[in-house]
Amino acid sequence: MKRRSKPYRVIKRRTGNGRTALVVSTPYWRPGTDFLDEIVRSIRGVVRDGDILTISEKAISTAMGNLIDESVVRPGLLARILARFWMRYVWGYALGRLCHLKERNIRRLRFYPAREGGIHKETVLRYAGFLHALQWGSEGGIDASNLPYSYVSLPLKEPWMVADMIRRYVRDRLGRRVTVMIVDTDKTYSMGGFHFTPRPTSVRDIHQLGGFMAYLLGRALKLRRRSTPIAIAGSKIPTELALDIAEESNRLRGSGAGMTVWDMAETFGVSITEVTWEMLDGVEHKPIVIVRLRVRSG
């Protein structure tokens, strides 16, 4: 398959607290991409022993073909009710305000697409469950942004094993001992030293609480929120530091074609199901961020 290719590029950034981040740009990882080889190619000559290699869960899931084509999904009654009533009226007029959503997103929710939305809610009901289907986006780690047509990505089933596979591959091919962290933009909320998230994660001390309820509590109370580490392999990282690194990495990584399916569609000037693989190929993608901690001398 002939496709537009983008060169690898590394951008160095200072992130505060003495940390350095190297943001790695690669071609878009379509299904079937050898993401292990892509990682090694893109960080060769750059990565050092002791670095923390953070990688987007979405990029890995896409490369692994961990996708659902919603064009073949048929929504049931509950899914249609959620799309037509729950999303448009409960989220559009009550919960959107309670959760301090942006006005633009509240307006979008009030016109939530009944057909496509019903299909999406059916997918969430099948693969994540009812409590996640009550959320308004990235339900249970299921995400449609930066994907074409009617595809959505599913969360990794065994993210720790994937992280460890990447760690071992980097060690074997490059001779570098790194820590691998798989991260997602979905937020973890912190109340003092207690951390919770609506979506699945294998990281200890980050608790998955009730899907929709965790999101509602965290947003309504304006708790501190940071991107979620999904899995860590190679070394033990304190939870606070892991959350800070996940948030910094996702901020530097950017949102590709858009943070939501609506943003993505607006970027390309098409409807939410008319984005193509070729359009996404032309966007700069930064699935990898190398974080280098400060080395104290003496």
Oligomer description: single chain
Q: For the residues shown, what is the average pLDDT? A: 93
Give the overall shape.
globular
Radius of gyration based on Cα positions = 19 Å
Instruction: Report the β-strand fraction as a percent range.
Output: 15-25%
How many distinct beta strands? 10
Poorly predicted tracts of residues: none
Distance between the termini: 54 Å
User: Tally the helices: what do you get?
Assistant: 11
Structural class: alpha+beta
Helix and strand sequence? EEHEHEHHHHEHEEEHEHHHE
Approximately how much helix is present in the residues?
Answer: 25-40%
Sketch the major β-sheet: 8 strands, mixed
Tags for this model:
298 residues; alpha+beta; eight-stranded mixed sheet; 11 helices; 10 strands; 39% helix; 22% strand
Task: Give the SSE layout.
Layout: E1 9-16, E2 19-26, H1 35-43, E3 52-56, H2 57-63, E4 67-69, H3 77-98, H4 103-110, H5 114-127, H6 130-133, E5 151-153, H7 159-174, E6 179-191, E7 194-197, E8 206-208, H8 212-220, E9 224-233, H9 239-253, H10 261-268, H11 277-281, E10 285-292
Parallel strand pairs: 3-6, 7-8
Antiparallel strand pairs: 1-2, 2-10, 3-10, 4-5, 6-7, 6-9
Q: How would you describe what is shown here?
A:
With 298 residues, the protein is an alpha+beta fold. Helices cover 39% and strands 22% of the residues. It has helices at residues 35-43, 57-63, 77-98, 103-110, 114-127, 130-133, 159-174, 212-220, 239-253, 261-268, 277-281, and strands at 9-16, 19-26, 52-56, 67-69, 151-153, 179-191, 194-197, 206-208, 224-233, 285-292. Strands 1, 2, 3, 6, 7, 8, 9 and 10 form an eight-stranded mixed β-sheet that branches. A hairpin with a 2-residue loop joins strand 6 and strand 7. The termini are far apart.
